[in-house]
Design brief:
Helix content is 29%, strand content 19%. It is an alpha/beta fold and 355 residues long. The chain folds into 2 domains: 244 residues, Vaccinia Virus protein VP39 (Rossmann fold, 3-Layer(aba) Sandwich); 86 residues, no CATH class. It has a 4-stranded mixed sheet, with helices on both faces. Strand 8 and strand 9 form a beta hairpin. It starts with a helix and ends with a strand.
């Protein structure tokens, strides 16, 4: 999805993923995958697998160890240790004089506070140790597509920031506090990347849903059971004389009690993979006194990530959401590329290359 967001102006030199479902999905959507995609553990990738010198290296390592829903193991956690596999390659490229001109590291917002900020500090120290200046942006996909999906993007570069430096809306309190916790030497390498605000989003969840007649609705008894799991505050969002109210619902367990939580603000909740106890998001519609519910479809989930309907998804809801839920929102990447990465790099190299 990062590659789709970067767009046709970029040439992909190398791509890697360990997961066979994601690998198959990548191959299905990129005709040139056989030329640059390698499936397997990042720890077994060698510098010889990476051709030339890239303008950009993008890393989206597994986020579970940084997520508030996870064990917060941090950078040394079993899954997020994939980052160190990636960083081993960056160090090796540096030793060969082939360091990427820029690096983007994307992860959940918990990256900023994991282990009291020590993991973020370790990441910044790694970047500074290889001669990069760096800074972070917190971008919620809700600015672009009707899904609440805040993510942190750490942008590191060997290029002078020039006019791209300055404060912006994407310097959240979390980013500012993470910066302020850094030692003075690392703060000296910090860049307040300036990213303009996008136009106001003009679509909501309802606009991306399939027609009511083309989807499968739950039996009324199942919808009633879900309503019974809601607190009065949540049920009230569906009550009253509404011509049509559309909401996104997650089932959660709080203090050992199953609960259904709905939001009717036009946004879906953050899409997740259906594993580790996570539930698949539902759609609930109240109209003329009748409430119906159903699962969010994979195609609807893909639209919430900014993927075109032509994007080939794995067969089966679990596999499809395994891909979608771990992805990065395409329009977020496009905005970041258009307004920061490309201006930073385009002065001397065209077309741009990524790995």
């Amino acid at each position: 999805m990062a590659r789709l967001g970067l767009g046709d102006g970029w040439n992909c030199l190398y791509a890697n993923d360990f997961d066979p479902v994601k690998a198959a999905c990548y191959r299905a959507n990129h005709a040139d995958a056989d030329q640059h995609f390698q499936q397997g553990d990042v720890w077994v990738v060698t510098p010889a697998d990476l051709p030339g010198r890239a303008d950009l290296a993008w890393a989206s390592s597994p986020c579970q160890d940084f997520s508030l829903a996870g064990a917060r193991a941090g950078l040394t956690g079993g899954r997020s240790s994939a980052f160190f596999g990636f960083w081993k390659l960056m160090q090796a490229l540096g030793a060969e004089g082939r360091s990427p001109r820029t690096i983007v590291i994307e992860n959940v917002v918990g990256l900023l506070t994991s282990h009291g900020g020590k993991d973020f500090e370790a990441l910044c120290a790694a970047l500074a140790g290889q001669g990069y200046r760096f800074g972070a942006l917190e971008i919620d996909a809700a600015r672009f597509t009707p899904q609440s999906r805040p993510r942190v993007f750490v942008i590191a570069s060997r290029e002078a920031p020039g006019a791209l430096e300055g404060r912006c809306d994407f310097h959240s309190n979390g980013v500012v506090e993470a910066h302020d916790r850094l030692p003075e030497a690392l703060r000296a390498a910090w860049v307040w990347w300036r990213l303009p605000s996008p136009p106001t989003r003009n679509t909501d969840l309802a606009a991306l849903l399939e027609d009511d007649a083309s989807v499968t609705w739950r039996p009324d008894v199942d919808t009633a059971r879900m309503l019974a799991q809601m607190t009065p505050t949540h049920r009230a969002r569906l009550e009253g004389d509404h011509s049509r109210t559309v909401g996104a619902v997650y089932r959660r367990t709080r203090a050992g009690v199953p609960q259904a939580e709905i939001r009717t603000d036009g946004l879906a909740g953050c899409l997740r993979t259906a594993r580790g106890g996570s539930s698949r998001q539902s759609v609930m519609v109240a109209q003329d006194g009748v409430v119906r519910s159903r699962l969010l479809s994979p195609r609807e989930g893909a639209r919430l990530m900014g993927l075109p309907d032509s994007y080939a998804l794995p067969k089966g809801g679990t596999a499809a959401f395994h891909v979608i839920g771990d992805g990065v929102a395409v329009p977020v990447v496009r905005w970041l590329a258009e307004h920061l990465l490309e201006p930073l790099l385009r002065e001397t190299v065209s077309p741009l290359a990524a790995e």
